[in-house]
Amino acid sequence: MATRTHRHPLNATVAVACALLLGLTGCASTELSKGTGPPLGADGYTGPSVTLQYWNGFTGGDGPYMRAMVDEFNAAHKNIKVESNTLGWSDFYQRIVAAVHAGQGPDVAVMQLDNLATQAARSVIVPMEDAIQQMGFTPEDFPETLVKATTFNGHAWGVPLDSHTIGSYANTAQLAAGGVEAQATTGPAFESDLAAVQKGGVAQPFWMPNKWPAHLMFLSLLWQGGGEPYSADGLKATYNSPAGVAALTWMVDQVKGGMSPTNVAIDSQYLAFKNAETAVTWDGIWQINDLKTTAPKLKWSLAPIPKVFAKPASWANSHQFVMLAQRKPDPNKQQAGKTFIKWMVEHSSEWAGAGMIPAYAPARNSPEFKSMPQSALAGQIDNFHYMPSIPGIGDVNAQTLELAVSEAILGRQSPEQALDQQAARADDILAGNAEKFGTTDQG
Predict the structure, then answer these.
(1) pLDDT given at position 443
(2) Structural domain boundaries of the chain?
(3) Could you give the CA distance from residue 267 to residue 274 in angstroms, rounded to a whole number?
(4) What fold characterizes domain 12-22+32-161+318-372?
(5) What is the average pLDDT across 392-405?
(6) What's the confidence (pLDDT) of residue 31?
């Protein structure tokens, strides 16, 4: 997919130098303001003309939707001009930390929910509870689980734009050939349907990846079984619990039982689904628009992943609007930034066109959203689970949990061995992170 390139405000020397200094909070953090500025008027921002710098990571198929919304906002607000800087997510966080601590950070940004605690601990973003109140939002406007997930050290750090989760995509023609009318809602029914589809002519109807999104599948099943990936204090990995072993064993059994080939390379399961080589795949709702554009003749349905264990649950993440710490805060820009965030959230039914589920209840209940495929998952939004607010948790997942899932699915270790080995490594990393970020309480 094409990526829109923007000029970056930091020169390479400053960016690299500051990035090398990043540790607990980065460079010059003590000079940064921690507030969101003066109250927002009833009519939003009514001051002199200002230009806001807005950073995001929407370089893929979601990019055009975000750009269209920014253009629409600019057209409706003559005294606010929003200039977007779009960076790939792989570079986004390093660059924004460097920019903020060099005193050249943006006014507003979008970050992924599982990065908020990390950026809060680095003094990159500021608490948002006052801004949220000034925008007129209440906790009831958003899913309770999502509101809780934005909290770290007693503060809310973002304003939710969306939730994005994984769902079960099914080739409806192949299901029908096996005598299956609709996607299963429970684990036993799902396994029965796979066997029927297999008899109907699809040799391996449910390819099991060993990399992305395998760990998202594992986390979903872990939560279904009542497990948690990490302890509440953020100091111990708990994904090797009996619930974790059961979850990973179920995934491995799909390979052992012949529902999936061995050694499925990254993205192969999704490409196989698009090519009608497999009947069902679990993947993110961000694939919806890709299926529409690259596989227009494929007939498919989308449903919540089945309840394999005790309760319905699925992994989810969220894009969050944040405001950045500033060396010399501009009250006008801070008010304008809150006006921008409020407008974007209230118009998030437009953002849903990118394949997302609006976090804002009125947008999620709009006729526009209810006509979209991902609305089939929105009724389960209270069963979405988000990563705990632990600084550095993304790196812990990538270095340990994802590796455990891969090793077991590839048959190199048993689920219990893989999870135990990597959980021990995770504990060491978590202890180091707690020292680096200066916190052991993520409440």
Answers:
(1) 43
(2) 12-22+32-161+318-372, 164-316+389-437
(3) 11
(4) D-Maltodextrin-Binding Protein; domain 2 (3.40.190)
(5) 97
(6) 60
